[in-house]
């Protein structure tokens, strides 16, 4: 038999269909209350930190000079294996640190077309490993790092060690990805050139 909310004894929760509706409504509003609590935590915690970091990084870029940073990008475009670490390690790290995501990809404009896919691969692979030490670089995706960090802190470990290891592994990965993607791009460009020669 269906028990109406009005029929429920005073002080007791409704049961039946109306009880399910009441619990669903409580869950629904609780979801937004949890989001609001999280937002307030960000507002008094990470957002002021990000504003200060962005201000400091922008001041540093202006102090160094945009022209000097652009000249470094042109230097990284030189051919040869000795320029791999400059092109796929230093340039992506500096781009992500100074220009942040997604502006960091614009540094690829100084590279020849054959290097652009590999530079992009290196840069896009570094926007997460840098977050532990420099959250200003990709604040929109801090939830990835904080998800990992939550598990580490629950186990009682510190975040400093995690942040440094995350960064070091990221540096190795972006160099490998840059070199491999450059080789794949060169092979595809050579195949495309051969095919165009056959068609002509």
Helix percentage: over 70%
Query: What's the alpha carbon Rg, rounded to whole Å?
Result: 26 Å
Helix run count: 7
- The number of distinct β-strands equals 0
Domains counted in the coordinates: how many? 2
Question: Beta-sheet strand percentage?
Answer: under 5%
Which spans have pLDDT < 50 for at least 5 consecutive residues? Answer: 1-5
Query: Overall mean pLDDT score?
Result: 82
Give your account of this protein's structure.
The protein is mainly α and 200 residues long. The protein folds into two domains: 28-64; 66-197, no CATH class. 70% of the residues lie in helices and 0% in strands. The protein is built from seven helices and no strands.
Would you spell out the secondary-structure blueprint of this structure?
Layout: H1 16-44, H2 46-64, H3 66-76, H4 84-99, H5 116-126, H6 142-154, H7 159-199
Transmembrane segments: 39-61, 142-160, 166-185
Keywords: Membrane, Transmembrane, Transmembrane helix
Protein name: PTS system, glucitol/sorbitol-specific IIC component
Overview in brief:
The protein is mainly alpha-helical and 200 residues long. The protein has helices spanning 16-44, 46-64, 66-76, 84-99, 116-126, 142-154, 159-199. The chain is built from seven helices and no strands.
Key terms for this structure?
200 residues; mainly alpha; 2 domains; 7 helices; 70% helix; elongated; disordered N terminus; transmembrane; transmembrane helix
């Amino acid at each position: 038999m269906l028990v109406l909310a009005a029929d429920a004894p005073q002080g007791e929760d409704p049961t039946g269909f109306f009880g399910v509706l009441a619990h669903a409504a409580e869950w629904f509003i609780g979801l937004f209350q949890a989001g609001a609590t999280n937002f307030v935590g960000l507002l008094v915690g990470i957002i002021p930190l990000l504003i200060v970091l962005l201000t400091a990084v922008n001041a540093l870029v202006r102090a160094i000079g945009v022209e000097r940073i652009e000249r470094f990008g042109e230097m990284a475009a030189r051919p040869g294996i000795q320029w791999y670490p400059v092109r796929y390690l230093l340039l992506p790290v500096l781009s992500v640190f100074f220009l942040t995501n997604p502006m960091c990809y614009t540094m690829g404009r100084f590279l020849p077309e054959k290097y652009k896919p590999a530079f992009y691969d290196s840069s896009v692979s570094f926007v997460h490993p840098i977050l532990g030490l420099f959250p200003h670089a990709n604040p929109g995706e801090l939830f990835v790092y904080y998800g990992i960090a939550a598990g580490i802190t629950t186990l009682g470990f510190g975040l400093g060690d995690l942040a440094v290891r995350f960064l070091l592994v990221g540096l190795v990965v972006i160099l490998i990805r840059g070199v491999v993607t450059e080789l794949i791009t060169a092979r595809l460009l050579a195949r495309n050139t051969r095919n165009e020669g056959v068609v002509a």
